[in-house]
Amino acid sequence: LITDGNSSVIGDVKGAFVSTAETQYLSLCMDNSSQFTVNALMYQQMEKSDENVQCNVELQQASTDQLEQFVEFAAANIGAPKEWLTGYYSNLINCKELFGYWQGTELLAAGECRLFDEFQTEYADLGMIVAQSQRGKGIATQVLHWLVKSANERNLTPICSTESSNVGAQKAIKRAGLTAVNRIVQIEFEL
After folding, report:
1. What angle in degrees, to the nearest 10, is found between the helix axes of 167-175 and 139-153?
2. What is the pTM assigned to this prediction?
3. Structural domain total, the chain
């Protein structure tokens, strides 16, 4: 549809997001693009990390009675809509894939170790949010070290992504032993 300029079924296709891991789709999009930008970096653990890496934080698995606290935490620290967060975090809690780093009763960081369906059983998709007041203190790196270790203990390859503009997250991800192997590219098409 894109290459033939025949997108009457769905309307004008003005752009696309494509992973550099999908080379044929990327080539098709690039051949028909007017411009493109890197939207996000996609990371993967290329080698298992050193077993002696010090992990100075201990995350606790989230429970259903903590759902509201996680939702409030994420809404305050990344601005995501509470309605969406409630469904998303509820699912993670039910799947035992959401963790918290606490200081007393204060949630300082949330970590995710999401597993995949029956088709991608070898990966764990990691995610984390650190309280704005705690950023720049190394907590993100420590949370990621914990999540990487958790994935490795289950013989899973950790992966994650971050926006190309989020330099702080990029540094933490690299320190946790992951490598940016692919990109998500935002493509705009000529109309």
Report:
1. 50
2. 0.86
3. 1
